[in-house]
Amino acid sequence: MFAGNVVDQRHGAPITIGYGRYAPNQRLVETLAVDDVMIVIEGRLSVSTGGSTETAGPGEIIHMPKGEHVTIQSHDEGALTAYVTYPHWQEAQA
C-alpha cells in the first residue's frame, strides 16, 4: 500500500489529506490511531470491523473511527483512494 500526503501538519492543517494506492488483493490490518475517511476513486475495497464488512467502489465513502480494529482488503483490480484523517496519522503512529 502506498500513501502520499497532499496536505498535512507541514502546511499548518489540523488534518491530513492524501491519496492511497492498494495493489490487487492487498490486505491491511490495523487498529486506527486516528479518525479516517476514505473515498474510493478507482477499484473496490472492503473494510471489516468487528462482525461487519462494508464494500465500496468509485465515488463511495467509508468512515473508520479512531480505535477501531479494521481489515482493509482490495479486490482483483486494486484501488485508488483519497483520505482525510484527524489528527495527522504520522504523528498518531509515532
Q: Could you characterize what this model shows?
A:
The mean pLDDT is 93. Strands 1, 2, 3, 4, 5, 6 and 7 form a 7-stranded antiparallel beta sheet that branches. With 94 residues, the chain is mainly beta. The protein contains 1 helix and 7 strands; from the N terminus they run βββββββα. Helix content is 5%, strand content 64%. It has a single domain (2-89), classed as Sandwich (Jelly Rolls). It is globular and about 35 Å long.
Entry keywords:
94 residues, mainly beta, Jelly Rolls, seven-stranded antiparallel β-sheet, 7 strands, 5% helix
Low-confidence stretches: none
Structural class based on helices, strands and sheet pairing: mainly beta
What is the fourth-level CATH superfamily? Jelly Rolls
Shape verdict: globular
Q: For the CA atoms, what is the radius of gyration?
A: 13 Å
Q: What is the H-and-E element order?
A: EEEEEEEH
How many β strands by DSSP?
7
CATH class: Mainly Beta
Count every helix, treating DSSP H or I runs of 4 or more residues as helices.
1
- The first-to-last residue Cα distance is 19 Å
The percent of residues in helical segments reads: under 10%
Mean pLDDT: 93
CATH topology: Jelly Rolls
Biggest β-sheet strands, sense, barrel: 7 strands, antiparallel
How many structural domains does the protein architecture include? 1
Range of strand content:
over 45%
CATH architecture: Sandwich
